[in-house]
Write a structure and sequence with these properties.
The chain is mostly helical and 111 residues long. The protein has helices at residues 8-14, 18-34, 42-54, 59-66, 73-83, 92-109.
């Protein structure tokens, strides 16, 4: 296996939304340490940024669709908890992840 990391300098040029950029980097770092099988790609970050500019879907749906697709509520909550202290609580993507966890938890209770 060859580990090939992402080019942060390139991402700084491509991802103009700094909150998203730092959120993506924190996600990668935590996911790697936790051993989760999730890829936070530059392409996913770019797609998230593009959809944010269009403003047609919620930030929660956007990050779920482009960054955290297919994760169950316990994985989402684990990631949210793992990001605690790594991002400012004002980071809109971190706040959206909290709301996503809460909405997925309430969806689970409906069944």
């Amino acid at each position: 296996m060859i580990r090939w990391d992402y080019d942060r300098e390139l991402e700084k040029q491509l991802i103009t939304n700094r909150e998203l950029l730092y959120f993506g980097w924190a996600l990668r770092e935590y996911i790697d340490k936790a051993g989760l099988h999730v890829i936070i790609s530059t392409r996913g970050l770019l797609a998230t940024q593009k959809i944010m500019k269009e403003g047609e879907i919620s930030i929660e749906d956007n990050i779920e669709m482009n960054l955290l697709e297919g994760l169950n509520v316990s994985s989402l909550k684990k990631i949210y908890a793992g990001l605690h202290g790594k991002l400012p609580v004002s980071n809109s993507f971190y706040c959206a992840l909290k709301r996503l966890c809460a909405s997925r938890e309430s969806d689970r209770e409906d069944y």
